[in-house]
């Protein structure tokens, strides 16, 4: 093996240059027990940014135990699926950790999703219980009228709330089912490249390995001076769930939770709570760069020393510009998928981040192959192909979807990421393009096929294709190319309004062009690259 790149020429595998992960020797351990058993000196676990309410670590684990006991008394058992539909909240980790400690399975959904989208996920995952908030409860009732609901906040004299469950004394004599590391812990939905999203089945071992990577990345500094993280990224997404609802709690860090992203709230929370680390998506980082002078004159960000960026690589101009405007703040980047428990590669120092355009070095205990997209042969250093990953964080498969599982996971454990990459002679991963055609709008994934299927239901539309269109603030926006039916004069606004009434706001089409025919290959597949070229040729 070449120690510089991590590439082994005898088997064409790239090996991680980071220290290997120590996984628990006991097979019978769940992710919650693993996280709660880590020793640290942290005191405050979670703070609600808007109310100031907080959980100490002692209160957090008491609450988790009480909720676990209540769920057990309600008949929740190992293998049952529990849905969470909620904005970010200090209660979100309590539910996740309690459910996983029983061996039950967490599935999450985006609060912006429509009742129709939620109904599809419920029909697929078949939850036995849902945790939600009062404003969002009608969506669940509309999606599944018979599904039992527990509200996450107190309301009137209702006793069926999470807050009431947290007050009860746990029954220490309850029967505990043995949970092993291969049991399913989470069922998160990832936008598929074609058609509907798919349930990603992740095990307790996957989450424990992910937590170990978080520990290795931030543990040393936490021990030396403690850390306060700002949580603006959504907890229903693998990024938020991995980092905030599980990973950082094993460190003893303090997590300041914002229910939704708002620039002023985020910046004033950094100042108020003396936050040191800010995870975000690239559009927010770009906004902080573009408005740096106004921000620095209004907010005291002197406590902030690290920004974590994920979702898309940052350009040299953005990285250098940010460091110039915020000289005391290091930018760290990361790459991961729901299918890899949110990890895969990262830069762990500003020096590593200065390899411009890189997603970083492979995560601990992670192996990679770069595979030629035409011949399926593995490629050496500095050659571009599809990135395959293998390691302890890789999912078990897609829920009830054998066809999708076998086309994404090989028999010997390789995950085909769908990202076109190369690994350089120093072992750094560079993402070049997506085989998967997802549009990344403000960090959210938008599958073009879903929007195309909806467009084709309009009586005035003959054919349609949806592509990513570059956008300064959002990263990309969904743009539709539409072929009108004969005698139709449907306009741009009508197309956008038609979709807006059926999907979550982040999936809305924001630009429309009319075309005489959609370019396709002989097998009928849309030639999106041709349309992207056409759309961007006028930029």
From TrEMBL:
<dbReference type="Pfam" id="PF13193">
    <property type="entry name" value="AMP-binding_C"/>
</dbReference>
<feature type="domain" description="AMP-binding enzyme C-terminal">
    <location>
        <begin position="450"/>
        <end position="525"/>
    </location>
</feature>
<feature type="domain" description="AMP-dependent synthetase/ligase">
    <location>
        <begin position="38"/>
        <end position="399"/>
    </location>
</feature>
<dbReference type="InterPro" id="IPR025110">
    <property type="entry name" value="AMP-bd_C"/>
</dbReference>
<keyword id="KW-0547">Nucleotide-binding</keyword>
<feature type="transmembrane region" description="Helical">
    <location>
        <begin position="81"/>
        <end position="106"/>
    </location>
</feature>
<keyword id="KW-0067">ATP-binding</keyword>
<dbReference type="InterPro" id="IPR042099">
    <property type="entry name" value="ANL_N_sf"/>
</dbReference>
<dbReference type="InterPro" id="IPR000873">
    <property type="entry name" value="AMP-dep_synth/lig_dom"/>
</dbReference>
<dbReference type="GO" id="GO:0005524">
    <property type="term" value="F:ATP binding"/>
</dbReference>
<dbReference type="InterPro" id="IPR020845">
    <property type="entry name" value="AMP-binding_CS"/>
</dbReference>
<protein>
    <submittedName>
        <fullName>4-coumarate--CoA ligase-like 5</fullName>
    </submittedName>
</protein>
<keyword id="KW-0812">Transmembrane</keyword>
<dbReference type="GO" id="GO:0005777">
    <property type="term" value="C:peroxisome"/>
</dbReference>
<dbReference type="InterPro" id="IPR045851">
    <property type="entry name" value="AMP-bd_C_sf"/>
</dbReference>
<dbReference type="Pfam" id="PF00501">
    <property type="entry name" value="AMP-binding"/>
</dbReference>
<keyword id="KW-0472">Membrane</keyword>
<feature type="transmembrane region" description="Helical">
    <location>
        <begin position="236"/>
        <end position="258"/>
    </location>
</feature>
<comment type="similarity">
    <text>Belongs to the ATP-dependent AMP-binding enzyme family.</text>
</comment>
<dbReference type="GO" id="GO:0016405">
    <property type="term" value="F:CoA-ligase activity"/>
</dbReference>
<keyword id="KW-0436">Ligase</keyword>
<keyword id="KW-1133">Transmembrane helix</keyword>
């Amino acid at each position: 093996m070449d120690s510089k790149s991590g590439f082994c020429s005898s088997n064409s595998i790239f090996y991680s240059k980071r220290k290997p992960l120590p996984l628990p020797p006991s097979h019978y351990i769940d992710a919650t027990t693993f996280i709660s058993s880590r020793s640290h000196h942290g005191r405050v676990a979670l703070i609600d940014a808007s109310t100031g309410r907080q959980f100490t670590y002692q209160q957090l684990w008491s609450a988790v135990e009480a909720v676990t006991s209540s769920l057990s008394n309600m008949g929740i058992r190992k293998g049952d699926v529990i849905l969470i539909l909620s904005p970010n909240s200090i209660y979100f980790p309590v539910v996740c950790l309690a459910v996983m400690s029983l061996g039950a399975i967490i599935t999450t959904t985006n609060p912006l999703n429509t009742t129709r989208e939620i109904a599809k996920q419920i029909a697929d995952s078949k939850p036995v219980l849902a945790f939600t908030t009062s404003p969002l409860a009608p969506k669940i009732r509309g999606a599944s009228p018979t599904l039992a609901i527990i509200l996450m906040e107190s309301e009137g004299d209702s006793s069926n709330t999470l807050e009431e469950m947290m007050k009860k004394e746990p029954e220490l004599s309850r029967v505990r089912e043995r949970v092993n590391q291969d049991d399913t812990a989470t069922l998160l939905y990832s936008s598929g490249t074609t058609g509907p999203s798919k349930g990603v089945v992740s095990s307790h071992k996957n989450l424990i390995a992910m937590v170990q990577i978080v520990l290795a990345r931030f543990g040393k500094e936490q021990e030396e001076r403690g850390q306060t993280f700002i949580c603006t990224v959504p907890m229903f997404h693998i990024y938020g769930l991995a980092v905030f609802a599980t990973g950082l709690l094993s460190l003893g860090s303090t997590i300041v939770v914002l229910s939704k992203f708002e620039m002023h709230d985020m910046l004033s929370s950094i100042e108020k709570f003396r936050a040191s680390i800010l995870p975000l998506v690239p559009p927010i980082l770009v906004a902080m760069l573009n408005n740096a002078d106004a921000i620095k004159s209004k907010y005291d960000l002197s406590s902030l020393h690290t920004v974590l960026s994920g979702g898309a690589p940052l350009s040299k101009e953005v990285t250098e510009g940010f460091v110039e405007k915020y000289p005391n703040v290091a930018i760290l980047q990361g790459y991961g998928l729901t299918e890899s428990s949110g990890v895969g590669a990262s830069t762990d120092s500003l020096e590593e981040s200065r390899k411009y355009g890189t997603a970083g070095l492979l995560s601990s205990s992670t192996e990679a192959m770069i595979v030629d997209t035409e011949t399926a042969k593995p490629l050496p250093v500095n050659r571009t192909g599809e990135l395959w990953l293998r390691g302890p964080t890789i999912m078990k498969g897609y829920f009830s979807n054998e066809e999708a599982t076998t086309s994404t996971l090989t028999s010997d454990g390789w995950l085909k990421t769908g990202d076109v990459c190369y690994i350089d002679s120093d072992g750094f991963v560079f993402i070049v393009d997506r085989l998967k055609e997802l549009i990344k709008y403000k960090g959210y994934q938008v599958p073009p096929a879903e929007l195309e299927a909806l467009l084709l239901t309009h009586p005035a539309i003959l054919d349609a294709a949806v592509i990513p269109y570059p956008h300064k603030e959002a990263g990309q926006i969904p743009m539709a190319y539409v072929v009108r039916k004969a005698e139709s004069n449907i306009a741009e606004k009508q197309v956008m309004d038609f979709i807006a009434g059926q999907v979550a706001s982040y999936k809305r089409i924001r630009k429309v062009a009319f075309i005489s025919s959609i370019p396709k290959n002989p097998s009928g597949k849309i030639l999106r690259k041709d349309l992207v070229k056409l759309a961007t040729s006028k930029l």
